[in-house]
Every structure is written in C-alpha cells, then in structure tokens.
Amino acid sequence: MAASSDRNPPPFPATEEPEPGLGDMADGDSDEGEDIFVNNRNPVSVSRGVSQPDRVNEEPPDLFTEEEEPDSTAAKSNGVQSDEDNDLFAEAHVELSTDKSGSSAARKELCSSSASSFTQSPAALQPTSLEQLEEEEATDSFDVDVAVTNPEKIGDGMNAYVAYKVSTRTSLPMFRNKAFSVRRRFSDFLGLYEKLSVKQSLHGCIIPPPPEKSVVGMTKVKVGMDDPSSVEFVERRRSALERYLQRVVSHPSLLQDPDVREFLEREDLPRAVNTQTLSGAGFLKMINKASDSINKMTIKMNESDTWFEDKFQEVETEEQQLRKLNVVVDSLVNHRKELCGNTAVFAKSMAMLGNSEDNTALSRALSQLAEVEDKMEQLHQEQAGSDFFIFAELLGDYIRLLGGVRGCFDQRMRAWQRWQEAQNTLQKKREAEAKLLWANKPDKLQQAKEEITEWEARVTQYERDFDRIGMTVRKEVLRFEKEKAKDFKSQIIKYLEAMLQSQQRLIKFWEAFLPEAKAIA
Amino acid sequence: MMEEVKEVTSFLSIHGQNIKVSEVMQDGDALTFLIISQKLSGTGEYHVGRTWDDFEWLQQHLFSREDVPGIQGVIFPPLPAKAPVNASAKVMKQLGFLGLEDWRPYCKALETFLRQVAAHSILSKNKAVEGFLTSSEPTGRQKARKNIFNRLSQAVDGMRKEGHKDVDEFFQTERDHNLILTGCTKIAAEKFLDVVLTEQKIAVAYGHFAASLHLCVEAGEDPNKQAFSRVCVKLSEVFDSMKKNMASVAENNVSTLGLGLDLESRYQEAEKEMLFRRICKLVEVENARRNAEKAKPVKKTAMEEVKKAAETEFEHISEVAKLEIAQFEGARVEMLQRALVQWCEKQLLTAKESADRFNQHLQVFRGMA
Predict the structure, then answer these.
(1) What CA–CA distance (Å, rounded) separates A185 from A161?
(2) What chain B residue is nearest to A317 in terms of C-alpha separation?
(3) Is the C or the N end of chain A the one with fewer CB within 10 Å?
(4) Contact B187 A324 (CB under 8 A)
(5) Do B195 and A342 touch (CB under 8 A)?
(6) pTM of the model as a whole
(7) pLDDT at A77 over 80
(8) Neighbour tally for B277: CB within 10 Å
(9) Beta carbons of A514 and B344 less than 8 Å apart
C-alpha cells in the first residue's frame, strides 16, 4: 500500500486531510471544488461505461469502483460467538479497488481531457486530480476492513445490552493506527447514522441505513442469550451491523466524515440519545413522512430533467418488488425450519422401528436410515440458515437502502424548495425596494439594497446547491445500482456454493447408505 | 398334509407378478382402475376396468371361503381404503401416502394387493380372482355371504381378547412383536408423510420466488439495470431448478419408502387381524371346553361336538397361521429392502442431477460480468 506515503494532500488551504479527489464534492468541509462547476448547469449523465471519458463530473468516486463483499458468514454458522479473532478480515472486507485495466485506460484519458478542460479552474485542483489518478494506477487497492464480532452481553435484566467488537484494519493515513478495535453497542450504530444523515444527506448522499431495532428480539436476549432464537437474533444483528459499517466505509464521502472515524477509533463514545426514531420501522416512517411533506409542497417542481422522475419511479417500484420477494423468502425459511423438525421426528421414529425389528440386517439398515435422516436434518438446518442469512438479509438490506435512495431524492427536492423560496424572498425584497424608491426613504433604501444583495447571493448559492445535489444524487444512484448488481451477484454465488456443497454431502450420505440397504437379505 | 400350500401353483391364467394397475379414469363420481394382466399362454393381455367397490367385492369373496380349513389363519393382503373422488380432507389424511394428489401411489397399492392375492396359494384358487382379472363382466352386486371376519376395530370386546394369554409361546411372541411393530410402523409412516408434505410446500415456495423474480426484470439500455435484470433472470432459473429438485425428492420419497412404509403398516395390521381371529377362536375353544365340562349329561354330547369342532378349527387355523407368518416375514423384509434400495438409488440420482445443475448455474453466475 504505497498510498500512505505518496498521498500528500493537495495544496487545499481549507483542508488538512488527504481527500480522495472529488470526495470533497460531497464533503461539507471544503467548498473549493465547486467553483469549477459553476458553469455546468446541466448535470451530465455520468456514464459508468469504460468508453466515454466524460466531463469533469466523472471523477474520483467513479475511480474507486468498489468491490464490496458483504456478509459472508452465510452458510457457516448460526452461532453467536463468531470467534473469528484469527481471521476477522478474511471474510469481511471492503476493497476500494480499481476495476479493470480498461477503466484505467479511460482514466488516463480523463486525466488529459480534464486537464485541458480545466482552463478556468484553480490550478490547485488540477494536480490533485492528476495526482489522484496516477496514484490510483499505482496502488491496486487501499482498504479499510471493518468487522463486527464478539457480541457480549453486558449487565443484567432489562438494562442489559449487547456490546460488539468493532475492528478496523486500514492503511489510510487519516487513521491513527493500522489496526484497532473498539466496543460499541447498537445505539452507537444508530447514533452514527443519525449524525451522518443530518450532515451528509444534505449533499444528496445515500446514507446506508442501520439494521432494525427490535424490542422483542432484545427482550429475549436481555433475559438470556442461550436459547436458539436469541442466538439467531444476535447473530443476525451482528451480521447486519457489519454489513452496515462496510457499506459506510466503502462510501468515499462518508469515509471522510470525522464522525465515522470517531466511531471506529474513539475508545469511549458518548451515548447516543433519541435513537428511537431512527431504526427499522422508525427509519422508514421518517422517510415516508418526509416524502409526504414534499408531496404536499405547494410549488410543484418543474423537472427539467426527466431522469430524476423516472429514477424515482423505478426506485419505488423496485422497493415494492423486493418486499414481495422478501415475503416469499420468509415463508421459505419457515418451511425449511419445519422440514428440519419433521426430519428429526422422522429419524427418531425410524430409530424406534429399527430397534423393534427382529431381522438383524433390516434392523441395522433402519438404524442407518435414522442416522442418515439425522444428518439430513443438520443439512436442512444449515440450508435454512443459508436461505435466511443470504437472501432474507440481502433483501431486507436493499429494501432499507432503497428507502435511503428515496431519502436522497427528497433532499434534492428540499434543496429545490429552498432555492425557490429564496427566489420568492428576493422577489419580495425587490418589490419592497421599488416601493421604498417610490416612497423616497433613502435610509431604509440602503438596508433594502443590502438585503437584496444578500438574498441574491443566497439565491445563487441555493441554485448551486441544488445543481450540486442533483449531480451527487445521480452519481450516488448510479453507484448504488452498480453496487446492487454486484452485491446480489456475489451473494447468489455464495448461496449456490453452499447449495452445491449441501448436495455433495447429500450424495455422500446416500452412497454410504446404499450398500446397507442392499445388504438386507 | 399342507404340502401343496407351499407350492406357488397358479390357478390363474395370467402372470400374477405382472399385474399392472396402469391408470385411473374418472367418470363423474366413479373412479375406474385399469387392470392389465399378461396371459400365461403369451397370446396377449387382459384389460379390465374395476372400481373400488369391485375390489371390495373381491376381498369379501376371499374372506367368505369358510370351507377352506383354517382360512381364518390366512394373512389377507390388505386392500387400501376407498378414496372417493371428492374426498374430505379427513379421509385423505387417513389415507396418508395414498391420499396425495398423485394417483400413482394409490394405483400401486391396488396393484400390490392384486399381486399378493395372485401369489397366495390358497387365495389364488378362488374363482372370483380369475373372474375379476380377466372377465369384463361386472362383478355383480350380490353381497358375499356374511363372514366372520370381525375387524378389530369393530369388535366390541376386541381389547380384552387382544390381551388374552396364548397357549403357544410362538404365537404369544408373534403377537407381542406385532403389536410393537404395528405401532412403530404407523408412526414412522405418519412422520415421513409430514416430511413429504413440507418438502412439497418448499417446492411451491421456490416456484413463487422464481415467478416473483421475473417481476424485477426491467427493460432498458442502462447497463447497470441490465446487469441487475440479468441477475434476476438467472436467479429465477436457479430457483426453478431448486423447485424441480425438491419436487423430485418428495416424489422419490412417496413412490419408494413412503409406499413401502404404508404397505408395511397395512400388512402388519392384516397380520394383527389374523392373530386376533385366532385368539377369538381360542376363546371360543376355551368357552366350549368349559361348557362341555359343565354340561348336563343331556347336553354333554352336543357340547362335546361343539368343543371338538372348535378345537379342530383352532388347530387348522394355527397351522395355516404358522405358515403364513413364515411367509409373511420373508415377504415383508424383501418388500422393505426393495423399498429402501429403490429409495436410496432414486435419491442418489436426483442428488447427482441437482448437483450438476447447481454447478452449471454457479458457472453462469461466476462468468457473469
């Protein structure tokens, strides 16, 4: 990882930390980059394809074509203690890596084209981009690996909670160490989300939503962590929290956020309060409420670009479809569990039959059968886990993520609203000025003129904000879609691998049983 | 003696072991089963259509041969219960493996019944069997003579008699053993049916998932959307494969082990009924002996006659029973073995096919851009 040494921060007066290029577009800290785009009113479609070295917009976040490997604990275990201390990161890591060589060629082109098109830009930015791009070529990947493990029940009774170990391994210089870990509880994760959504969504980012809050689940755990449903609950939550963090750190802008760093690094985090509204049902309710208030907007947005309308529609439709799928998966998981139970009962009944049987060979065969069925029950159990952890969780995650996508569309609407309102106010101020002119009150006039100047600036600002947020939203959505296809594909591969393994074990069971069956004389 | 009973001399003009119940035809409320038998002479086949009522008529005729000594000692091949066209859920449930949507297990059970009858040295002599299998004449609705084959369930004092101490250790052991086995087998069959029903539910759920995935497929040129759509289409195919796999697994279970357990269960019940009949006769003998002892001189001779008759019948029954039991033990073990081997072979084949198909799907996904 040459990243650490070569990454001298670009001479940006405002920032102290190295930033992955256009991450600053969305980062609240630095506004410098924006000046370039003041003339680019029309959000250019950010092509994900390799071929087109598009305009300025296409820079850095695209370069970090991420390969996320979400939850891979899938078929392994339903156990609570993921005691993978040795190999925490073997399965759970996020790689911000370059894609294929094709895209690096495109980026080279980008370098030159952006260099030439940046005639008006502050010279400062140029070297950054070039530097950044060249760096990307040099390093194959720089990674932030995050894992959530070792759930531990702290305390007793109704005040008990579960603390998780959050471990980070990174080569990024913005972190104090290369490897470190902290203990966090569920409300901490929710608190992180709250902070991020307040800040980052203003820029149109899709903030990964946290996992569901569950009173029922937690109550069981508070009572005791030993029964299978509690075990499953804790494991499900641990896994979801891990995926949540992985999505956060794989987002280039979010990774820059000091709150994220604090979450990962700081020993003691102040308790997050007011997390009621933020999780699961609360989260979606919040999104829906926001949507409702926007629908009630008196000034309807005149969409100059149908891309947003169309996309929004798609997102809503997709959310519905995923919900339907989720329902089917849930019933599938239940049937599998039922099959487990039935197989176990059947195995017992065969064992009894085998014991009652006089004929020795038959008796032995029947007992063997009982054993085979027992093994199959084990298989079914794992299969249910696989169905559940892979598909149900995947669908659940994306249903929530789509809610987050809707959220960022809403943010854009709000930005538009703000702009419109500012324009209205400006208009009113101008009218007021005109009146004062006519009434000839020079002292008030001065103030009016000042106010007009102020509001003119605001209008410009808000308009810029709106454009910028629009571009971010487009980028975010496209990134999301790309990630989604990849995510689904990788989970499906995992599922198929587990299925295949299951089948092969099944084959072995049958092959072992056949001679026993034939031996009955 | 009873030597000739051991020979499986066929009194039928057809090959008993090739009888097939090939299909069932529905005509309104009536179900007709097509029975195909091969002529011994090799000149062709008989195709006969029979309803369940016809089968019952046959069974009643088999019961009614009181002239055959020791007929009550015969373990009668069990006839599956009637499966009416619009059967209530309760009836279907009682039928167990024979009450599933697929008619093939039921046909197979009827087929087994006929084969067992045809192979039985005593029963195959009954002219009713030949007529049933070869003649297109309706079986006639005349009720068979009232027979003394009280089913255990109908017997008022069945429970008491069931526990009646035996005079022969062989039979006592057999009765005890039968009691345990009947119970165990019935439970095993029920539990296995539960497994199969759940498997069928899973297959249906897979089908729903596969169908729902198609709804996620979107047209459009956006490469990311296309990528996702491709994923959905391929995943739908995966779940379709999984559905077929699970349906096969369930079907294999039904057609081999399920049917086997069902037959074993009913066969054990048939033995139970035979043993009960014998015990009833034993009780009758013991009563007759008491009566004969207590009888006043006037009635004494008559009582003695009755006693003698009862004792002779009991002897015959026991003799026949012993042979039947020996044959029964061999037959059921062979039948269970066949069921287990077939079950294992079919499931092994299905598992291998599925593994191949999953592997193919996996390669497709891995190769996807």
Answers:
(1) 7
(2) B216
(3) C
(4) no
(5) yes
(6) 0.75
(7) no
(8) 23
(9) yes
